[in-house]
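[INFO] parsing input record for Disease resistance RPP13-like protein 1
[DEBUG] input buffer:
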Amino acid sequence: MAELVGGALLSAFLKVLFDRMASREFVDFLMGRKPSDDLLCELTNVLLSVGAVLEDAEDKQVTNSSVKKWLDELKDAVYDAEDVLDEIATKALQSKLDAEFGTNIASKVRNCIQTFPFFKKIEVRIKGVLWRLKNLASQQYVLGLVQASTVGGKPSETTSLVDDSEIFGRDDDKDEIINKLLPDDASDNQIAVIAIVGMGGLGKSTLAQLVYNDKKVQKHFDLVAWVCVSEEFDMFKLTKTILEAVAPSSTSNIQDPNQLQLQLKEKLMGKKFLLVLDDVWNRNYTECEILSNPFKSGAQGSRIILTTRDVDVASAMRAFEIHHLKELQEEDCWKLFARHAFMHDANTYMHSEFEELGRQIVDKCKGLPLAIKTIGALLRSKALDVSEWDKVLNSDIWSLSNHEEIQILPALRLSYKHLLSHIKQCFAYCSIFPKDYSFKKDELVLLWMAEGLLHETENKTMEEIGSDYFVTLVSRSLFQKSSEDEFNFVMHDLTNDLAKFVSGEFTFRLEVDRRSHRNVNKTRHVSYARNVFENFQKFEALQEATQLRTFFGIRIVNTLFLHN
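[DEBUG] output buffer:
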């Protein structure tokens, strides 16, 4: 079976199944046992079929509810398949031990007799899983799922234009960056790079636009150019785009990358330029070095501003200044919300029911400008109706079930999309944590290990791999350092929502989810708040959860303080 795995695009949780089926003990146990062996070969082929489109499904689930449902059904079927394989692996080990220690003929005959009903039972279960997987495989074409190599779409682009009247709370950030732009200090032959880093939805591009359009900045530089890089990093296309921004109509016939770089170098020669590279994802140091070579011909005082969600990108571009963008303050959040939610002067609605409801809604946006603007626009479309505002305040929108209405999720989606499948699994596992829960790196890595999400390699231990995954999630702004303890980390509430969304029905947070009377038949991971005096009645919500893999008690410090 091992050769079937080669070259296939598999998500991490599928790879675990293939590794198990390819193990020596497993293969030896099934050797010559038909139809069990044939059924498992058929299971392998079906898993390969759905595994090939899994990455596309993971990307599309965020915006397509049908794909999300398909993916959840697939995960449930794969979990069932893993349970069956676990039973076979356990039986294989038992038979191996019996063969080693039961030397007489009678024990061998007894072992053979005992395994016969086991295989009959297992075959029925495998057939059930196969039927489900085949049904799901037949739906992938209807859903438009394709293999990852053919997946691609035109990314949303940004421009340098911005409406200053819609921006609040960024004056200090703007001044700080401008103060780094204007001095003409020499730093050998390197162009000074300033990186604006933060999670999706914070307004990194907006801040860069503010700086770019400032009159002092425009006057200070001989040449200014704005280029939206986005997720697709093609060296030739990007260099050509930069050259077109610097010198329009100068690249039409150039097809050689070297000639393109030489012409860009010539156009920048001796000029003090400002180049904004917006939404950069590429972390490859060598590619960043090659891209930067023509910039060195610019005059002293030239600057590059890049926006990114990943601090590793800033390092690859040799940023001398990294500006970590923070969430908006409470009053700035309200001003931004009022600008989008009210058709007329917001002062008209001060000290009214609308302000009371509006401030509660704004609080749910957790300081993210994109979330605030989107929900403000949504309320604006519903007119001034208190009942409508109340519905929004108490809507499922905040648990992402209505994700197409609030566009903060697409802002985080790219951060999630660019994770390796193994790291996606580790991130989704974090949905068992309640919001605002702080955790330590080493403790979380141990939880990942216990769940079987980490697999050691020839060069690295599981702990080292888990540490690498953790650092990646921090660098993508999906994990953030706690403001209370430098050794603790937290997830932003909207990031927590994203983890909860991608984990689907398989995670159940007892204190939150039991209120919704949600079906727990598919639940595999449960967390609950661990108190000094437990009320065991709360666990009645889990009576139907018969396939649990995780039962995690979390000590909520603040809750304990309140009880005291």
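[INFO] The longest helix spans residues 65-101.
[INFO] shutting down worker
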